[in-house]
Amino acid sequence: MKIMITGGAGFIGAALVRHIIRHTEHHVINVDKLTYAGNLDSLAETADHPRHSFHQVDICQNQAIEELLAYYQPDAIMHLAAESHVDRSIDGPADFIQTNIVGTFTLLEAARKYWLGLSKEARQGFRFHHISTDEVYGDLGETGLFTEQTPYEPSSPYSASKASSDHLARAWQRTYGLPVLITNCSNNYGHYQFPEKLIPLVILNALEGKPLPIYGEGLQVRDWLHVDDHARALLKVLEEGSIGETYNIGGHNERQNIQVVEAICSLLDELCPEKTAGINSYSELITFVEDRPGHDVRYAIDASKIARELGWTPEETFESGIRKTVIWYLENQPWCQSVQSGNYQRQRLGIEGKQ
Ligand code: NAD
Ligand code: DAU
To answer: What are phi and psi of 262, to 5 degrees?
Structure first.
């Protein structure tokens, strides 16, 4: 297959590109605007590979997208490009509306036009895979799991914009017959994640002896999935999923934020015992700070449909995955420094809109 991947220089997109180039014969047409979250260093391994081409393009640029589709004639589009950080969506929602909603609309329309021009056989084989999040389902409360039937109830500007994009993708399938697949995944972690997200932020702050900020009391629960397991699931859905279906993807790894941060601290105590002066354990750096506005208390995914219908289950446990991740950040400090070279220095985000 020739697969156009949007957002392929971001955290999950780059993991997907690496996975496809390593483990399949598919060709990748990588389309990414290279915002602060996109980084070509994450693609060093595939940069010069003959089955990978990179194009710095904004998905909102209709003409550029149409030209790429006409030139490469892809068999599938995997759409990951998005503004992805909840805290940034609170400080400035405009980019989220533009990329996540208008960008998805632009891509769906370009895909529809391209798909209508294909031969009957190519039209039947074509897929538009829209990659989304469990946050569209909102706040779960203390019990239960998100299934594919859970009603949408997004809480943040980010999750509302992703919910809108899911609705558009579903409508383009129902109304126009575009062969759409949708996946909704839980929190990813792993190598090459931009250090605004909880896990890399805590690792890097700890190494510098800085406070480890926990929002509220740290009792919120997320369902953690290693990014390589997500990449495997995405390819499985693209290759074997049924048109018009939604698949939830999750790690069966529910953890409170405080438990995640304590796990990172004890791994660092073991792997990196030479700490900054004055502390015996990295956990002494834990600092409770003002909560995130609108903070969802718990997410947890029922991933039984993708297991039953497509045979996908995660390979990584949280314990094995978090150990690998901490080691990767310890060994890849140059990557961490290069991606933070702009105006982001791990300062607190997401409280500008607070009354
Ligand atoms: P990320 O922020 O790391 O990467 C996003 C990528 O999209 C970046 O490379 C960026 O340059 C690119 N991009 C942004 N705006 C663009 C535009 N207008 N045109 C072209 N490219 C643009 O995000 P991520 O964590 O890799 O998430 C990827 C996708 O997966 C998103 O759609 C997100 O909603 C979804 N998702 C993420 C998680 C998670 O835990 N990170 C979980 C479930 C679903
Ligand atoms: O559930 C999937 C979602 O997971 C994705 O759709 C998003 O793109 C991705 O960013 C992630 O969203 P979260 O808001 O859950 O991730 P984040 O890493 O920002 O925060 C994880 C939890 O940790 C959340 O409850 C907020 C908390 N937190 C976060 C940061 C950055 C802290 O307590 N302190 C922090 O400094």
So the answer is: -65, -35
- Can you tell me the distance from the alpha carbon of 277 to that of 95, in angstroms, rounded to the nearest whole number? 41
Q: pLDDT, tens digit, for every residue of 139-195?
A: 998 899 999 999 999 999 999 999 999 999 999 999 999 999 999 999 999 999 999
Ligand 2 atom, smallest distance to 223 CA = 1
135 given a catalytic annotation: yes
Distance from C-alpha of 294 to C-alpha of 247, rounded to nearest angstrom: 26
**Distance of alpha carbon 239 from alpha carbon 248, whole angstroms:** 16
Q: Which of the following is catalytic: 58, 87, 134, 302?
A: 134
CA distance 121 to 123: 5
* 200-226 residue pLDDT tens: 999 999 999 999 999 999 999 999 999
